UniProtKB/TrEMBL annotation:
Taxonomy of the source species: Bacteria, Bacillati, Bacillota, Bacilli, Bacillales
Residues annotated as domain ABC transporter: 5-249
GO cellular component term, pick one: membrane
Residues in the signal sequence: none
Pfam short name (any one): ABC_tran
Residues in coiled coil: none
InterPro entries: AAA+_ATPase (IPR003593), ABC_transporter-like_ATP-bd (IPR003439), ABC_transporter-like_CS (IPR017871), ABC_transpr_PhnC (IPR012693), MetN_ABC_transporter-like (IPR050086), P-loop_NTPase (IPR027417)
Keywords assigned by UniProt, alphabetized: ATP-binding, Cell membrane, Membrane, Nucleotide-binding, Phosphonate transport, Translocase, Transport
Name used for this protein in its record: Phosphonate transport system ATP-binding protein
GO molecular function, one term: ATP binding
Length: 259
């Protein structure tokens, strides 16, 4: 196994004074599918967003593919970020653009800014985007506007866009939180299968403990900004789950993704 990501002492204090993360250490190896669980406000989104510096950490070191992710070196940050795919709860698609165009946006990090502005994608990229859309079951949606799609379809566009980056790591921030159970299962299967087949490491934030147990090779439990559990689904006992969700037990009920 190869180490993809190494996080040491990650701490984030927001400007208002909220201490969202304290001293998180985490190593991610190639091929791992890691679910991050914890109650609302525990710091799951902050953790994922600190990795690619959508959120600027207050302290700590993040090493991706052996290089330190530093916002001080814009060139290397852009290069490293291009290999990290991000999947969002609310999809973050350009609604007025076609499905195909949205998937092609995954190539922007590899193009010159000018080529990107004029949407000068190569024929190979266009074909790769169509192939991905066919693979995720959206062959009939390629030329539709993104806002014509259902939530589950939009998320499969989001997944395709992330895969277009040919990433080494995918960060999925509550990818099924806005979806019905059937769409959630399709979306989780799609993320899981693509990561497995292509050896992409994945960190996925999930509210549903049973979904985490179903898919994850490893589960991280976050409580009030600290890592309180790091182990397999079998090691995640009911006692540990209650400890992680203490006082917010109503948030952990599974009702999605075939769990
Ligand atoms: N931009 C921000 N400015 C100030 N405080 C923030 C900001 N973003 C998050 N926080 C605070 O940081 C803490 C962690 O939030 P975060 O969104 O990372 O948690 P979470 O576990 O992802 O929650 P949820 O499951 O509800 O998305 C919370 O107390 C939150 O209110």
């Amino acid at each position: 196994m190869t180490t993809i990501l190494n996080i040491q002492g990650l701490t984030k204090a927001y400007s208002g004074g909220t201490l969202a993360l304290t001293g998180i250490d985490l190593t991610v190896e190639s091929g791992e599918f890691i679910a991050v669980i914890g109650p609302s406000g525990a710091g799951k989104s902050t953790l994922l967003r600190s990795i690619n510096r959508l959120v600027e950490p207050t302290d700590g070191t993040i090493t991706f593919l052996g290089e330190v992710m530093s916002s001080k070196n814009k060139g290397s940050l852009r290069r490293l970020r291009s290999q990290i795919g991000m999947i969002f709860q609310h999809y973050n698609l350009v609604n007025r653009s076609s499905v195909l165009e949205n998937v092609l946006h995954g190539r922007l990090g590899y193009m010159s800014p000018l080529a990107g502005v004029f949407s000068r994608y190569s024929e190979a990229d266009k074909q790769a985007a169509i192939d991905l859309l066919v693979k995720v079951g959206l062959a009939n949606e390629v030329y539709k506007r993104a806002d014509e799609l259902s939530g589950g379809q939009k998320q499969r566009v989001g997944i395709s866009r992330a895969l277009m980056q040919q990433p080494k790591l995918i960060l999925a921030d509550e990818p099924i939180a806005s979806l019905d159970p059937k769409s959630s299962a399709v979306v989780m299967d799609t993320i899981y299968e693509n990561c497995r087949l292509q050896g992409i490491a994945c960190l996925v934030n999930l509210h549903q403990v049973e979904v985490a147990k179903k898919y994850a090779t490893r589960i991280i439990g976050i409580k009030a900004g600290t890592k309180v559990f790091d182990g397999t689904a079998d090691q995640l006992t009911d006692e540990m789950i209650f400890n992680i969700y203490e006082g917010k037990e109503h948030e952990m009920h599974a009702n999605q993704a075939g769990a």
